[in-house]
Amino acid sequence: MALAQIQSLPLEQEQPIRSGGLAKQTRAALRLVPDFSVENSAAVSNRGFMGILIGVFVAGLLALLCINTALTSGAFTLENMKLELAAVNDQRDAVLNQVATHSSPDFLAKAATKLGMQPQTGINFLNLNPAAVPTTPRINSKAPSVGVGK
Fold this sequence. Notes:
The protein is mostly helical. It contains 4 helices and 2 strands. Strands 1-2 form a two-stranded antiparallel ribbon.
């Protein structure tokens, strides 16, 4: 209540002004609320704050655009690599099938026949007992002869 009374009472004080003279003041020296009148609207303006908000919003959108572009290019690279991996796996399967075909007993027998080899008719066993080893070589006349280039 005392402050309200101070503001309402006109005070006559002499204060120096810039021109060097003294002027009488009729307003109170203390104020509780700053002056927000129309003349002081430049201090209250929110244009700067709105500019900062718009700048942050635009920067966020640009950052989001950059992140989205990077992720999209990474997705295309990943898709290309998946397609390349599928092609390499198909080639690997084809090579494994060729190896399996070429290592089959039928294919090996045909290839040996083309080279001039003959199938074995009898079974011979090796006896590694030293007492059973003959001292003179024995020539087997019943064994088929293997010729090269027949």
